[in-house]
Amino acid sequence: MSAAGLLLAIPASAADAGPGAPGIGDPYYPTYGNGGYDVSHYDLRLKYQPATDELEGTATLLATATQGLTRFNLDFALDVSEVRVNGRVAKFATSGEQELEITPATPLAKGQQATVVVRYSGVPGKVKRYGFTSWQRTPDGGVAANEPESAWWWFPSNDHPLDKATYDVSVLVPDGSAAISNGVLVSQSSKLGWTRYNWRQNKPQATYLATLAVGKFDITRNTTANGLPVINAYSKDLGDNDGAARASIERTGEIIDWESGYFGPYPFSAAGGYAPNVPTHYAVETQGRVFYSPAQFAGGANPSVIVHELAHQWWGDSVSLSRWSDIWLNEGFASYAQWLWSEHEGEGTAQELADWVYSQHPADDPFWTVKPGDPGAANQFDGAVYDRGAVAIQVLRNKIGDKAFFALLKAWPAQHQYGNGSIAEFQKLAEKISGKKLGPLFETWLFTAAKPAAPPAAPKAGALRAAPAAPQAEPKSWKQIAATHTIHDR
Ligand SMILES: [Zn+2]
């Protein structure tokens, strides 16, 4: 197309323009994310003062309109002072809990690139949405790490895993404080009492997997045998949990190498974790830099939680869910990785753990009323999504055999790397690799609100059908695995 033709085309498509939808279409969270555009990159330039919890920032979003847009929404909860679209001042208004409605000076045509600059400020710890804040204040700063919503308290976004983007996060903090975020620490420099940390995530990342922590941290750096940088950070105020936190998180490189044997090459440019001095109990698989509450280490070293969160780097981060009802693809597999680790450590096989979970819940236990394949928003992080979800994976392994099963564990992350996937697509791939029809298995174990009649027992060699599950002894690993179920409490 000639330049003249291009100029003519823009007003023609803009004539069909309308407002973008205020949600991306997720049945669990109708207002999360937005319609009409796709973000490819977030550039966040921030300044944070730990003493007062004041955050100011300029977010520059690179986006492409997927329809003609007279207006579009971002999701955000702090105070906005100015919005520009392609250099020109845009009108903006807020609505609902977290909608920022932006009206560009001229409508965007379908396919048009847009650079959206949002200037903002606020005290995130004081901002509540839907009755809560995802910004945790600490004695020395603040932390954003939560699921499924965390971004609203520190940057404006299209807040749904369907719209993944790369990130540059640049944070100015007083000398002596550190800023932790995702990816590689590109540079760090100090001037006039303030230090700037520049972090880069160069692989697509879902908004809820972006994290920011400011505080007094001890940062450790290592490199795996494959050359992967591992950057970990520990609050200087972890008290008695300090040793156990380090004895766990410093094993990040080792556990990534071990998991790569099951799931294929590690998908990101850096790895690591951080433990800020928060009073919560959960951990979140923030991309390439996992958030761990120190309470995860109150009982001593806890490699099991490291295994869980690092498994998410393949199951949830590189391959993100398509909508939140697909949560089994995240939590079922991260839990199953803990079962594989238990086997590896000689603390109980995955089969023994499956038999244990099955035998621990009688048929009238409400545990069985949660469908891991569609648990509902209120039960999205219910223990059943983790435990029954992992049992379902063991049943699948028994059904298709180890060869097909372990091929599947590598094929799924390869097929959907840096994108999204759904349970239906996963079933299709499992059927393709195994040559077996799996509809009834998925229906029984993921989509039925009742205890399956047949136990998850592995077929005995030479036996025609599975033996009934005998009363089980508790696998040695169970208590630690169960303890990581506080992972997503709010
Ligand atoms: Zn998890």
Model description:
This is Aminopeptidase N. Residues 302-445 form the Peptidase M1 membrane alanine aminopeptidase domain. It holds the Pfam family Peptidase_M1. By secondary structure, this protein is an alpha+beta fold. It has a domain at 324-486: Neutral Protease Domain 2 (Neutral Protease, domain 2, Orthogonal Bundle), CATH 1.10.390.10. Helix content is 26%, strand content 27%. It has 10 helices and 23 strands. The protein has helices at 3-14, 242-249, 252-263, 303-311, 328-345, 350-360, 383-415, 423-434, 439-446, 478-483, and strands spanning 18-19, 37-49, 54-65, 69-75, 79-85, 88-89, 91-95, 99-103, 113-122, 135-138, 141-144, 165-174, 178-180, 184-191, 194-205, 212-215, 217-223, 229-235, 273-275, 283-284, 290-292, 320-321, 420-421. The strands form 5 sheets. The protein has an 8-stranded mixed β-sheet with strand order 6-5-9-3-2-12-15-14, with no helix packed on it. Strands 17-18-19-21-20 form a 5-stranded mixed β-sheet, covered by helices on one side. A hairpin with a 4-residue loop joins strand 2 and strand 3 (54-65). Helix 3 packs across helix 4 and helix 4 packs across helix 5. The longest helix is centred in the C-terminal third of the chain and has 33 residues, at 383-415. The protein is globular and about 70 Å long. The N and C termini lie far apart (53 Å). The site of zinc ion (ZN) has 5 residues, from helix 5.
